[in-house]
Automatic annotation (TrEMBL):
The lineage of its organism: Bacteria, Pseudomonadati, Bacteroidota, Cytophagia, Cytophagales. One of its GO terms (cellular component) is cell outer membrane. It comes from Spirosoma linguale (strain ATCC 33905 / DSM 74 / LMG 10896 / Claus 1). This is TPR repeat-containing protein. Signal peptide: none annotated. It comes from the Bacteria. GO terms for biological process: receptor-mediated virion attachment to host cell.
Amino acid sequence: MTVTAQQTAVEFFESGVNRSKSSDFTGALQAFSMAITMNPENAPSYYNRGLAKATLKDHRGAILDYDKAIELNSKDALAYLSRGVSKSRQEDHRGAILDFGRSIELNPDAPQAYYNRGISRSRLDQYQGALTDFSKAIELEPVNAYAYYARAVTKQKLNDFAGSILDFTKVIEISPKRAQAYAGRGTSKVELNDFTGAITDLNKAIELSPQDSESYFHRGYAKGKLDDYKGALPDYERALALKPDHYRAYYGRGFCRSKLGDQKGAVQDFNQAIEVNNVYVETKVVYNGRISHAILDNLRNVVQERDKINELGSERAEAYFSRGVSKHRQGDSKAAIIDLTKAIELNPAYAEAYFTLGLIKSAQGDQKGALTDCNSAIKLKPGYAEVFYVRGLIKHSLGDENGGCLDLSKAGELGYTPAYKVISEYCN
């Protein structure tokens, strides 16, 4: 019997791998979940399910799977590397750095771990450590354009503009169509007062990426430094058209207007340069997650309560439940709540009644009450995917982004795949 179960687990695992290869990540996830159910001690099943979740941008859920994979096999460098990547996607750069360090200890010749650790160090303003990591990644993989680019940006942060130009040039050699490399080299040339050389690079950056406001801004600045105020003006205009809150571009345009004799326009621009970023923000927020009241309503209303006919018990809880649902559909939510509450009173284990009650309360704006009902439904039916989904939405809307996203992850894991679209938009 055990041998058959093991074979079946292997088959599900292989199915998960094949589905991942064909980019069916939700299918892969379900297959790995089945493999885990049949053999809960197999680290690769957790690791691969983690990868599937990460690809679906469910990094919180992925981290839980990597935790389990590492618990079962603490020597897996890839599991630490992948967990580090997911932690960095969640802005936990300190945690990510520890994982990348452990991955490097286990496999010191993997350039990706050094590169990723360098990125996380940069995010924490640890530029000297980042520089060392990017240099090591380049030593191990001399044609890694990403590592050269990251090292170039780090050198800029450390005011080594001449060194950054060498690295940006290397990126351009490896990848001649990379607009950011021309833009980066151009801004370093500005810092070194090579304004003509900067304009040449920024022209190329704009040709390759015409929607980059920063390239227009820096080209305008370089033209201004060469006293070409007429030429600089359209660059500042374009920077502002692409990014209307670019206060440095207002300042640059104001300076050009002043030099060209338009003092009234100059004063308006200087006012904007001062005012932008000083906008009054309303502090009283009820829905303080990125899921607002309106978004919550849209996402929640897609979910239908599981309104299947049940055998009518002697206490008639099912009749109250169904009457409540009908009253809600007729728009009488108050009467619906009374009926659903009665159904629960008669049958305290009625998970569907709690869930439906939660949906109605949420629609009425009583998110705390809805949360309590969803908790009860999950306690009674721990595999109720839709409830995890709705509870996740509500938690997120109340500002508990981590708790909300973990619930959405659980909903997806349990087979409610619309959760991954929400995770992709609101959990990263």
